[in-house]
């Protein structure tokens, strides 16, 4: 075999071994290029829901107080007229035996001072007698007021008194020594009423002025009910 034929044969053998005519190699190169064109950075978004359901409303504890009370009082000294009283009582004795029978009215007239009234029926039931408006003798012809003090609620700065129900009483609020008279009824349709003075030191007095009657035990034995339902709400004083 000639030298040129041997050279061509060697080329035929060596070229495939060098990879120049390897179809697989060309395919891999193209595949790698396609992969680079279509691939990219995969971003995984992890969404963390940190939203929590919370309520700023303070959980309230409802308190209730109540009792019965006598709606009227009487001094037992009526002398037939609303204004005339028995001003002087004295002992009565049996004329035949001399036995003590009891007390009887010796003098009637218009009362001119506090001592002309017997207020034990008021005070024995826990009432407070008020003579502050009686400045003239003629003023004492009318019975004094008899105020029953039921309960007192104390609040500090930052505490609001919420009243949900109140009946049979009135409320007098005193804050830092200043008295604020408040109504005895809630606004129609309102869930609750807020007492004044939530930014101050206050006392809320629950009272009732009972009426005087000259008709005797038929009225003084009558009773009624007072009640209150309330809560204390924390507030921010600004």
What is the H/E string? Answer: HHEEEEHEEEEEEEHE
Mean pLDDT over the residues: 79
Kindly state the number of beta strands: 12
The helix fraction, in percent, is 10-25%
Proportion of beta-strand residues? 35-45%
| Coarse shape | rod-shaped
Uncertain ranges: 25-33, 38-53
Largest sheet: 6 strands, mixed
What is the number of helices?
4
Q: Gap between N and C termini, in Å?
A: 115 Å
Round the Cα radius of gyration to an integer and report it.
49 Å
Kindly name the structural category: alpha+beta
Quick gist of this model?
This protein has 238 residues and is an alpha+beta fold. The protein contains 4 helices and 12 strands.
List keywords for this structure.
four-stranded antiparallel β-sheet; 238 residues; alpha+beta; 12 strands; six-stranded mixed β-sheet
Secondary-structure blueprint of this entry?
Layout (H helix, E strand, L loop, with lengths): L2 H16 L4 H16 L24 E8 L1 E2 L11 E9 L6 E10 L10 H4 L3 E4 L14 E11 L3 E9 L2 E6 L2 E5 L10 E2 L7 E11 L4 H4 L2 E12 L4
Parallel strand pairs: 2-11
Antiparallel strand pairs: 1-12, 3-4, 5-6, 6-11, 7-10, 7-12, 8-9, 8-11
Describe this structure as you would to a colleague.
The protein is α+β, with helices and mostly antiparallel strands. The chain has a domain at 63-75 and 119-234. Helix content is 17%, strand content 37%. The chain has four helices and twelve strands. The chain has helices at 3-18, 23-38, 120-123, 217-220, and strands at residues 63-70, 72-73, 85-93, 100-109, 127-130, 145-155, 159-167, 170-175, 178-182, 193-194, 202-212, 223-234. The strands form three sheets. Strands 2, 5, 6, 8, 9 and 11 form a six-stranded mixed β-sheet that branches. Residues 25-33 and 38-53 have low confidence and may be disordered.
């Amino acid at each position: 075999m000639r030298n040129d034929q041997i050279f061509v044969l060697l080329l035929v053998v060596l070229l495939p071994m060098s990879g120049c005519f390897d179809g697989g190699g060309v395919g891999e190169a193209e595949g790698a290029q396609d992969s680079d064109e279509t691939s990219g950075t995969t971003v995984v978004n992890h969404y963390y829901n940190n939203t929590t359901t919370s309520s700023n409303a303070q959980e309230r504890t409802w308190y209730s107080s109540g009792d019965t009370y006598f709606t009227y009082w009487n001094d037992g000294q009526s002398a037939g007229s609303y204004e005339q009283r028995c001003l002087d009582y004295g002992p009565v004795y049996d004329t035949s035996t001399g036995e003590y029978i009891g007390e009887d009215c010796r003098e009637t007239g218009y009362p001119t001072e506090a001592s002309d009234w017997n207020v034990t029926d008021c005070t024995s039931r826990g009432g407070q007698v008020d003579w502050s408006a009686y400045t003239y003798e003629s003023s004492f012809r009318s019975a004094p007021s008899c105020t029953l003090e039921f309960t007192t609620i104390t609040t500090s700065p930052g505490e609001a008194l919420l009243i949900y129900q109140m009946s049979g009483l009135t409320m007098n609020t005193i804050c830092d020594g200043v008295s604020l008279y408040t109504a005895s009824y809630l606004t129609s349709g309102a869930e609750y009423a807020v007492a004044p003075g939530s930014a101050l030191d206050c006392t809320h007095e629950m009272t009732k002025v009972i009426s005087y009657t000259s008709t005797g035990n038929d009225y003084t034995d009558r009773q009624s009910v007072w009640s209150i339902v309330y809560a204390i709400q924390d507030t921010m004083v600004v």
